[in-house]
Amino acid sequence: MSTEDYPIEVEFPDISVHEQSASGIAYVHTFDSGAPGPHVMINALTHGNEVCGAIVVDELLRRGLRPRCGRLTLAFANVAAYRRFDPANPDAARFVDQDFNRVWTAAVLDDTSRTSSELTRARAMRPVIDSVDALLDLHSMHEKSQPLIVAGPLKKGIDLAVRLGTPATVICDEGHPEGRRMRNYEGFGDPASPKNALLIECGQHWERSAVAVARDTTARFLLLSGVIDEADLPAGWIAPLPPAQHIVRVTQPVVATSMDFRFAAPYRGLEIFAEAGAVIGWSNGEPVVTPYDNCMLVMPSLRQLRPGVTVVRLGRVEQTVTNA
């Protein structure tokens, strides 16, 4: 599938006005209410071409949103990649040197022999993220798929996703072989820690509806955390909840070992194959098959194809939760 299939329906905001911040970290704004409460963070631009989160964070900063208790951080992460965005080659702005969302282990961040644009930025943001209690990381997807929550493998992440109530699909997984995501970093990925995080895949990168999902989930996350009141939010951000949420447990990633990988059909994501053994693609000429009945494809895409990249995850629905 080519990028021409996905028109750019949204305006990319000029975020240069947000570069200077009291935190001393460019594009990372922390506001302290002075009253007890959690430190809540809304993060955008983990990937430079995922604009829906940037639109939301830009809107909240321009609105002057402040927490009524605790602290609130509003951040743009991979600004260097965002600045490289070219509508003629929109997928190229995902990152500069490496995926910003695959560097989040203490060992990697501490290893000063390793350098990249993304590691430099992650190291600069790390002191703030180390102090965050609740993180919402706003993303979008290569292909036009229904929005979903990436809740991580732990019960606390699933419970938070269910409390949020939307989107309708909750993905529980261990992450990527290529490296750890921010939402799994340190306390977020520790079952003994009260820290928690969610990653929202709001829709296809440049579709208008992804912005609506980003606004809705951000509004609900902030209200759930208790740091703001509903009157503090822009009108119309909160959308109706889906009737139910489906909890999907990812059992395994399918990782490309070379550039010779192709899917059997133009999958968009959340397709379910009723019987084990269904051929979903070919890797180095060998068939890739579903390992069990009722196998779901999670975020299939070849747009970032290279050896070591997860091209799809395989999972199954393990629970359905009805929204009251």
Automatic annotation (TrEMBL):
Is the keyword Metal-binding in the record?
yes
Q: InterPro entries annotated for this entry? A: AspA/AstE_fam, AstE_AspA_cat
Query: Known Gene3D superfamilies for this protein?
Result: Zn peptidases
Which intervals of the chain form a coiled coil? none
Q: Does the keyword Membrane apply?
A: no
Cellular component aspect of the GO annotation: cytosol
Domain of life assignment? Bacteria
Under PANTHER family, the record lists: ASPARTOACYLASE, SUCCINYLGLUTAMATE DESUCCINYLASE
Protein name in UniProt: Succinylglutamate desuccinylase
Recorded source organism is Paraburkholderia monticola
